[in-house]
Specification:
Pfam families: TRAM_LAG1_CLN8
Structural class: mainly alpha
Membrane topology: Multi-pass membrane protein
Radius of gyration: 23 Å
Organism: Sporothrix stenoceras
Keywords: Membrane, Transmembrane, Transmembrane helix
Number of strands: 0
Protein name: TLC domain-containing protein
Low-confidence stretches: 308-348
Helix content: 55-70%
Length: 348
């Protein structure tokens, strides 16, 4: 399916990135660099304009008193919510509508080497978010720290390899790991809006657990096995002229033409993707059980105490302020469930 992005490639931008693309073998990057840039600018606009305006209008009592670090945290959660809703919708739409992508179900080489405009667009828009993520983390390094910087760099690098093209078919699949992110963001906002432990957060928590389990642990691991299967074949068998020109293939030769001069994928690329994926899937299992425990704790009544000591008002205020500012991160995560005022690295 052809790229449906409403704005076509910008010649000057494509020309500017061409040397970089040739040096690193990212053949289709010039066709999609404008989508990356536009997406990054869009998310920047949401962060510096949309979030402050809406937050000051709807929750001024919460947003206005925040310091720089807390506003950066809040605004970044707004961006994360917008991005997750947008990119998940596009990924699902692509998987259900793109007939060329459906035709790849019977050809593992097309799933590895094939190129389609719309799945590549989805990956480009995701890369735009990761570019924004990297820039905002660098600009607020004192707030977000080295962990989120490493996350931003690695996420951008892994998705950028798709512009070889590589795993174009699986791009929307990887995006669907983020179907749980809107619920994670909602959990974070419930806490900040004083709705901790309420019915809305309870039902959101149930939906979060169900979505996380079904999308990451079941569907994610199942599709990971297919990725390993296809990539292992691609280590030993690359595109051939006969495969590119195959008149019996369901898809037009243009889907395969980009890979005409490619060979088998390098072993290091296979190891990189498999290692990263195994680590992520293992962490997903760990996080899921921590989520279950955290949700239970959030809604179980606190144990009764026989004797309480009244603390001075100043001490309570100081303690709450310290807890609220002790650890600041900027995207909703499964570990948001562990502390009301703490959020850690976003799961990607």
């Amino acid at each position: 399916m052809k790229d449906v992005f409403p704005i076509g490639p910008i010649p000057a931008l494509s020309k500017a990135v061409q040397p970089f693309a040739e040096k690193f073998g990212l053949d289709i990057l010039p066709l999609h660099i404008h989508e990356i840039v536009i997406a990054a600018l869009f998310y920047t606009f949401v962060q510096v304009v949309v979030s402050p305006v809406l937050s000051n209008y709807f929750v001024p009592h919460i947003y206005k008193p925040m310091n720089r670090a807390k506003k950066a945290n809040w605004d970044s959660h707004v961006v994360s919510m917008v991005q997750s809703l947008l990119i998940n919708t596009l990924a699902l739409w692509c998987m259900f509508v793109d007939e060329e992508r459906k035709n790849m179900n019977g050809d593992w080489k097309e799933r590895i080497y094939g190129y389609m405009g719309t799945p590549a667009m989805v990956s480009a828009l995701a890369c735009g978010y990761f570019v924004w993520d990297l820039v905002i983390t660098l600009l607020n390094f004192d707030v977000f720290g080295p962990g989120l910087l490493a996350h931003a760099v690695s996420a951008l690098a892994v998705f950028s390899f798709g512009f070889r093209p590589f795993l174009n078919y699986y791009g929307p699949v990887f995006i669907l790991y983020e179907l749980s992110t809107p619920f994670l963001n909602a959990h974070w906002f419930f806490d900040k809006l004083g709705m901790t432990g309420g019915s809305a957060q309870f039902y959101n928590g149930i939906a979060l657990l169900g979505m996380f389990f079904s999308c990451r642990l079941v569907y994610g691991n199942y599709m990971s096995l297919w990725v390993y299967h296809d990539m292992w074949k691609a280590v030993w068998d690359g595109p051939t002229p006969e495969w590119v020109a195959n008149p019996d293939a369901l898809n037009d030769p243009s889907v395969r033409a980009v890979a005409a001069d490619k060979g088998p994928i390098p072993l290091w690329l296979f190891v990189l993707y498999v290692t990263s994926n195994v680590i992520l899937n293992s962490l997903n299992v760990h996080w899921f059980f921590k989520m279950i425990s955290a949700v239970r704790k959030r809604f179980e009544p606190a144990p009764a105490t026989t004797k309480t000591k009244e603390a001075p008002v100043n001490a309570v205020t100081s303690s709450a302020a310290a807890a609220d500012g002790s650890t600041i991160r900027h995207r909703a995560t499964v570990e948001d469930l562990l502390k009301v005022d703490d959020s850690l690295t976003e799961v990607q």
